Amino acid sequence: MAEYHDSFGDEQPQPKPGMSTTVKVLLGLSIGAALMCLVCCGGGIWFWSRAVSMTENPEEIKTLTQSIATIDVPEGFQPKFGVTMDIWIVMKMAAFQAGPHDTLVLMQMTIPGGLTEEQMKGSFDQQLKQNNQKHIDVIEREVRTFKIDGVDRSFEFIKGTDPETKAPVHEVRGLFPGPNGMIFLMLQEDGENWNEERAVKLIESISTK
Predict the structure, then answer these.
(1) What would the CATH number be for the domain defined by 19-204?
(2) Which of 129, 81, 141, 75 is nearest to 107 (CA)?
(3) E-strand spans in the chain?
(4) Where are the transmembrane segments (predicted)?
(5) pLDDT tens per residue, range 98-109
(6) Could you give the CA distance from residue 110 to residue 115 in angstroms, rounded to a whole number?
(7) Torsion from C-alpha of 159, 208, 89, 19, nearest 10 degrees
């Protein structure tokens, strides 16, 4: 496992330029969980600076991705950033981008006692609501089933528009269990760049073994 050298000192991780709204929400969700742990457990800034780290090193991001799940990242998507958090909750997140809006995110959260699919999905939706953010106006939503490690898992294929620009947007997202917690995958692409066959191949490449 790669070491992450970019310490935040006494500051929280800040969203990077070019992040999609969904990525910012996921990052906010993980940071919020960390802050809750600090309030409950104490330790303050000193503990925070040693428990949360971020990297923009491409090789470290690839290593982090493989520690979550084996996945064939689509051609053109480049490592953007990786975040790790190890307090009471253990979180790993790797993000890739192709252009300003096309984003692939793989995130794993490990919580003592376990985290169900419904709980993780509820936390994501709640974070959106709390931040008054809507990352996509949904026009059409389809649930498809794929086998991950031989087990049927559901993925949402969403077609919609950007709330601000009204440009067409496609999003694929799904939750599935890994050996160390629930894993969330999200792929978002502009309408002009959308490639359904590529999205399907991405999902079919996933393995947590």
Answers:
(1) 3.40.1000
(2) 81
(3) 6-7, 52-55, 78-86, 90-98, 102-110, 137-148, 151-161, 168-178, 181-190
(4) 25-48
(5) 977 799 999 988
(6) 7
(7) -40
